Backbone:
């Protein structure tokens, strides 16, 4: 298998994992959302169900030998309302919109996505935001070698 096919297979694997994660989150959130009123009634508690207005961010991914490129759609979100965090191989992207004018009937829209990008250094992450698109370039660690010198 050559590098190009391996990169395509890796990208497809990432997409599959992301979709399974999304399905799992939606399933758990729906199950909790349906069971919280029952628990509140039976246990006489006041638990809050998970928010229903969190949207998954649509994104596009391109992997090659030297970098990972992500283009994330965050419609209506300003640069100041975007957050980007990396921890334990997971890149977390979130954003929100709030309308305080005559458009407040749209309510608050929240966006969130977790993307597995592997082990990287945060100094290798560059992000640029314009026109509702968050463009992220992650330079891969190319100095990793599988050979270890024994002294």
Residues:
């Amino acid at each position: 298998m050559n590098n190009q096919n391996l990169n395509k297979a890796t990208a497809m694997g990432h997409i599959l994992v992301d979709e399974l994660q999304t399905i799992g989150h939606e399933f758990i959130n729906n199950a909790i959302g349906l069971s919280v009123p029952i628990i509140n009634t039976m246990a006489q508690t006041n638990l809050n169900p998970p928010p229903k207005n969190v949207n998954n961010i649509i994104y596009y991914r391109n992997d090659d030998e030297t970098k990972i490129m992500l283009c994330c759609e965050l419609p209506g979100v300003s640069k100041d309302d975007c957050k980007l965090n990396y921890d334990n191989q997971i890149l977390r992207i979130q954003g929100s919109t709030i309308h305080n004018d005559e458009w407040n009937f749209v309510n608050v829209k929240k966006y969130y996505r977790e993307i597995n990008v592997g082990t990287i250094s945060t100094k290798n992450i560059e992000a640029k935001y314009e026109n509702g698109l968050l463009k992220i370039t992650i330079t891969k660690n190319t100095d990793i070698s599988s050979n270890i010198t024994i002294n």
About this structure: Residues 90 and 106 are 31 Å apart (CA to CA). The mean pLDDT is 81. The longest strand covers residues 90-97.
